[in-house]
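Dear Dr. V.,

Thank you for agreeing to look over these. As mentioned in my earlier message, I'm a first-year student in the group and I'm still getting used to reading structure tokens, so any feedback on how I've presented them would be very welcome. I ran two proteins. I've put each sequence directly above its structure. The first is here:
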Amino acid sequence: MFTGFPVAALDFYEDLEADNSKAFWAAHKAVYDDCVRGPMRALLGELEDEFGEGKMFRPYRDVRFSRDKIPYKTHQGGYVATGPGIGFYVEINAAGLRLAGGSYAATSAQLAALRSTIDDERRGTELDKIVRRMQRAGYEIGGEQLKTRPRGYSADHPRIELLRHKSLHAGRTDVSPPWLDTARTLDEVRGSWREFRPLVEWLTAAMAT
């Protein structure tokens, strides 16, 4: 049963940012298990009936091809996938809670399908309305974008800003919210994920190949 993320979870990541070492991790592994990993698993379990099976990202960084060799991620993410690179996301870190939903990665085939659907007057206008509605609700709209227009589309296309997206997601960040260590966190995540659902479902259908 999910009862919130203890304040110790934020303290753990604040300390990990200062000392990202195997020695620190070994000495504080129990804090991670009790205050981060356990609550995240419980949270995803509570959301499963409505959104689907949730997964947790590994806490270890893949440093094989990175110049940055710090071994541990300074956040814990959980997600529910609705398609390849698409779904709902929740994260706990030193600052607080991050919630998001949308697409985060795309193959060339997925990207072509996305742009073709945005180009369609009916479906593209539908996405534009979804994005604008989320912006009015206070959500941040993000994602990797081209600096120029994508090949094959004119610069004066009515939805050129959407066409420039290579990934597209909405999100919110709650910095040290007073309800983080209570069951209200479940309501906050569920409420935001419900608001993300039109965007997630639109992207899942548009990027199916």
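The second protein is here, in the same arrangement:
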Amino acid sequence: MQSLYDWTLHLAADPNAVWFLAAIAFVESSFFPIPPDLLLIPMILASPQDAWFLATVATLASVAGGFLGYAIGRLAFDTIGVRILRFYGLLNKFYAMEALYRRWGVWIIIAKGMTPIPYKIVTIASGAFHFDLVRFSIASVACRALRFFLLAALLWKFGEPIRGFIEGRLTLLMTVFVVLLVGGFVAVRYLVPGKKQAPEG
């Protein structure tokens, strides 16, 4: 795994780094273990003016790769999907999350899609559980865009000094952001009183 990590970082200095970024973002959504952040971070630090373009590339490629994961779950779960989940030791978690996924599918997609928690389990599960493709698409775009554009904004604003902080605490940062985001929606739903209807007659 360390050699794969080092190889991914090496790609950031390649003249074709944008294409590598797109490719890694694509395959990471269904089976590849290394997140595109490892390319995105040094690429933005080397060229801050391209931060938003690079975040867009990562977002679009990751969402496209998510459809591959969805197809694996929907059409080839028993052959390919099971092997991918077993390889990462996620098969038991996959079966355990089915009931929660059917109830909170969109929020699970957003939460896992924004954090380093393997997004591939979400894309494969969405297809295997026959989750609505339109809702899956909207949630995927939202979570991937929030993740990569937030990362780009931090790097564009603070530059090199924040690199070590982000790389060491990426899980914590994204988890806190998700908690605040979901908590805001819950607060609106349960704490803000609805408009009362006027009595009839």
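From my reading of the second output: Residues 2-191 form one domain. The mean pLDDT is 77. Does that match how you would interpret it?

Kind regards,
E.
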